[in-house]
Amino acid sequence: MKRILIVDDDPILGTMIQEMLEWKGYWVQLSRVPQETEQNVVEQNIDLVILDKLISGTDGTEVCEWIRNNEEIKEIPIIMITAMHTSKKACMDAGADDFIAKPFEMDDFLSKVGQLLN
Amino acid sequence: MKKINAHEEGADYIVLIGASAGGLQAFKEFLSAVKKDSSLSYIFLQHLDPSHKSLLPELLQSSSAIPVIEISHGLILESDKAYVLPSNSIPTLTEGVFSLHKKQGKSGSSHLLDNFFQAVANEYVNKVIGVVLSGTGNDGTRGLKEIKNKQGITFAQDLNSAKWSGMPQHATDEGVVDFVLPPAEIVKKIYGLNLSKAPVIEHIRQDDDSYDNILSQILQILQQQEGMDFSNYKKNTILRRIKRRVVLNGNKNLIEYLGYFKNNKDEVEQLFNDLLISVTDFFRDKSTFDFLKEQIFPKLIAGKGREEPLRIWVAGCSTGQEAYSVAMCLKDYLEGVGEDNPYGEVYTAMEDHIKIFATDLSAQAIAKARKGIYKSAEMGGIDKAYLKTYFTHTNSGYQVIKELRKMCVFAEHDFLNDFPFGSMNLVTCRNVLIYMDGELQKKALTNFHYALKEKGVLLLGNSESISSVPELFNSIDKSHKIYRRSDSKRKTLAPIGKNKVIKIPKLPKSAAHKNNKPDTRDYAETILLENYTPVAVVIDQNLDLISIHGKTGRYLEHTSGNASNNILKLAKGSLGFEIRQLVKNFNPDAKKKQAKDNIKLIEADRQYSVSIEVRLLNDIKNSNYLVIFSDYEVKEEQHEVKQKDEKGKRIGFLEEELAGLRDEMLTASEEHQIVEEELQSANEELMSGTEELQTLNEELETSKEELQSTVEEITVVNQELYNLNTLLTQEKKFSEAIVRTIRDPLLILNKKLEIIMANKAFYKNFKVSEINTMGRSVYELGNGQWDIPKLHTLLESILPVKESFKDYEVTHYFQGIGKRSMLLNGQILQEEDHDEGSIFLSFEDITARKEARNKLKESVSTHHEFIRSSPWPIAILKDEDLKVEIVNSAMLKVWEKSDDIVDQPLVLAVPELAGTDVMRWLQEVYSTGIPHEAFQQSNRIKRKDGKREYFDVIYQALRNIDGKIIGVSIIATVVTDQVFLNEKVRKSEKQFRQLTNHLPELIVSYDVRDKTYYYNKSFLDFTGLSLKTLDKEEWHCVLHPDDYERMMEEYGGFIERAENFEIELRIRNKEGNYLWCLNRNHCITDVEGNALRWIGTNTIIQRLKDEEKRKEGFLKLVSHELKTPVTSIKGYVQMLLSMISKDASRPISSLPIESSLMRVENQITRLTHLISEMLDLSRMEESKLDLNLEEFNMCELVEETIQDVQHSSGMVHIDSDYIDECQVKADKDRIGQVLINFITNAIKYSPENKDIRVKVFQEEPDLISVSVKDSGIGINEEDLIKIFDRFYRVSGKNEGTYAGFGIGLYLAKEIIDRHNGKIKVESKLGEGSNFIFSLPHET
Fold first, then answer.
1. Which of A16, A25, B542, B667 is deepest in the core (most CB within 10 A)?
2. Residue ranges of the Response regulatory domain (chain A) (predicted)?
3. At B1210, is the secondary structure helix, strand, or coil?
């Protein structure tokens, strides 16, 4: 079972994604504290990180960069969620593997996740 | 060291040292030889500049072993010290104390030494040593003379060592210097004189016999060698002079000197000369001479016969000044008398009848007197008038004029021992007798008495008198010592003998024996006298015996007691008495014989009857008497007489005869005596005459010698003349050659204007021949061609008056030559004694020159015309005073003057320019030659119409051919319009600047031409930079570097094309922050499109930008916030749909439908809320927020709202506080919105503590306030201020998602503001917040 970490501070959205992914059979952890990401990834053997671009004031790209610079977890696949598709470049530049704009089609989202986990 | 007092015994010597130029060096040399304990005191006098303080003391101290002190008033003189006179002072020394007086005026310094030396010598007598060192002039000579007179010692600096030899040389020449040596040697000599040991001679007393012996030896030697007996001279004088010689020679005492004296002929001569020193001067005792002139001369001249000469004898005339003084006085008198002269016009001839005999012992003195030349130092006693009249100034001094000299005859003569002159009208002998003792004086006076005629006048010196011979003279004027010869029938002479070795053979004494009578007669007479004459004695007036004739034993006898010669004592009985009576009552004119008979005399039992007859022996007052005794014995036996009557009668008769014979005898004897005396007189007169002849002889000798020398001189002069003549001939030839070869035509005319001479050039130039010119009148030349009016004027009018002239121009058309212009120079040569003169004319042909000059004139006037007609103001100024030479009308207009200012100096012509920089420039240009340009100068002269004018002016130097600056030119161009234009531009610029300074925009303006930037005030204030900094770095230094790059990239082209453009860029403010500005650039171009000026304005849009950013941020946020719930909704829906459709296996009931749908619902609510906020916001933006005002109860609203919130939130506890009166008029919905916002915030921001308190209260009378207080996290200060700003959300990572866009409070504020209410917040971080709004109370 693949293990996914969601980093998002909106509880409703986060919960929704969590339920969606769990429905699809993934193990999901929801974190609202981006600083705990490393800890979570390492401890929980995370296989994929789903990162919201706007996390309670912090720019998600920062977190992405930070992950990529982190020796331990730099290889981990990351999907960024953003409200504006104009942010695509910024996300990709930050090191994200993929990105999806809100609101997204469920199928789209699920396929991206599946791709990155394989 | 002790005080020097002249009168103390053993007083020390004072050394007076004087100098003038070169004195410092001499003083130094002197002082360096001075020893410390010499017991002498040294006083230094130097001619000093009165205006400078003398540094002499300091300068001399270094060379001196003794202290050098500057003389001050009241200073005491001490020995072994050097005293220096300060400048501008006159010293005196009295009783050992100095006094100083300030010098009056410049004069006086030239007699500084003389005056001081004389004064000190007078007080300190022989204790003075005088030294004259280097200097010019003759100061000091008289001083030294006086010192020498007072027996002091004198020194002068030798010529070799003296820098300036005038003073020492003069003193030496005058013979007043004892030693001539270099200064150091002088000091040594002084010490060598052994002065400090008071000379032994000082203590010589008059009656000291041993010295008397030595003295008489010396005098004897003197007499032998020099023939002069000084033994009757005043002893003191002689001693002093001898003592001086002793000291000078360095002898220890008189004995030693005597030894030296005996063997040294020169010393004898020196002493002789010393003894004869006399001080004489012109017009000594002037008042005496005045008296002579007024009282004596008139009487003398009146008293003598017309043809009689006036004879004057000046005895002891020394160097002749006395004699010349008398001569001058006399001559003066004679000339002054003029018409009053009883002799009428003959008075001039009278001068030939005046003879002044002037005599002296000293040959030296007489020689000098004969020469009649005196140095100026000796001329002190003479009036300037006399000096001019009676003296001529020569190289060697002042010489008496011929007339005066002719009046005097000088000779060596000893008035004591040589035969005196005779028949003198006036005898003067002044200040000679004082040197003689009583006897000699008497002798001298007696001689003078002899020399004078009846009623002749004797003049003595001031301190002399005739007291030794009172019977010889009567006093005329006691104060002036003028005496009249007392007349008597006889002249007697003092015996010549002891004093002198006789030079002239004397006539035998007894002149009575005319015909060589044989001696026998003498014998016979002797016998007769002895035996047959009565006894007689000669007594003098005092009844003292002089001589005895015969046996007087009967009548006279010596009695016991003191031996006496007096007849009263000697005469027996009453004889003395009778004699006395007779003498007393003696009448020289009585015809009767003076006798007394029958004087009884008893002697040894016998009785005698004595007769005494007294006779006068000479007719001088001091007469002697002859007393003749005769007696007979009176016998008692008288009666026997009868018997012997006949015998007796015969005897009686015989006796009578005898008596008669005796009488005859006596008479004869008397007559004999008389004759003898007359002969004696004649003899004496002859002697006198001889003496005179001798004198004349001497004089003639001298004249002969003088003539001889004159002849020699003439020969020399003759030779010179001969030489001169040769030279003259040469010169003549020379000048003739010049005249011949000279190129300028020359004419010489005589006074009649006839041509005496013309040179070749003249003939050539004017084409006339020699024949036709010589001797002809100048006007006839060339066939009357020269008859030119101008020439007439010249020769007849000008020349006679002016004597010479130059450059006289004559233009004339000559036939055959053409028109000629000539310059003439003329000169009259006039011989002194002739009437003949000649006129020299020289010609210069200036025809060509004149033409050239005319051409020049033309060109000059053209040049001037050019200047005059120029429309530009031009002026030409000439010379240093900048005279206006040329000025055109344009310049005149500028200066507002008329052309009468030409030739005036500029400062006078245009006074308004005086003191201005124009004058300064002109002067600078004139002196330096460097041109000066001045632009846009306003007219220095204010025009009457007040209009202003401006000029560009150039001042240039004008030079002549040689390059010398001779003037300045002023050329101006009018630039008034330009100036006005410039002014306008400047004005508009100014306006522009003023305007721009007030604008808030940051403005930069760039002038393309000047390449200058202008920054307005706002720019400078904003950037905080100064103009200086901006000048250095240019304005884009304040731009954000990226923006500048961008601007250049995007708009570089625009700049080149001078096209306007806009750009947003960041400018750095004074805090260093970059703020966004909208930069608009506008280009001002000229007609061709070239950029003239760029004007850039920057409007600060940072706020806008900030808002933009915030808006952007907001949009992003909105995007995100809206999209997030949508995503959730979509997610859940899609999930469910998927589950329902795709996951068929799962039963519907197992699907999480409810939870999902609930979440969906929730998110939709959220969305709705957000959307309505957004709409509110946009409406707020567009000010479309309309208020629905209604009255309602605030408390009710609050309560409702709380209920709603509590219902939806649940876990919140809200307290409330209400008041009664809380009616407001407002938009209920909106106010509700505000409340909800406050409360939801309170809830949101106090997650732990859910206690919220809402209070309605009346904060102020008209306000209803509602406060929502929480105890949550509070707000920090920074956020507190901005909390009501649009989009402002409190940042911080501790909260969860933002529940809103940051619009809530902003909206709340807007709403309350719209209601004219108030809104505020109180909060402290960590302690909670209290939001309050207030609305007007609606009553």
1. A16
2. 3-117
3. coil
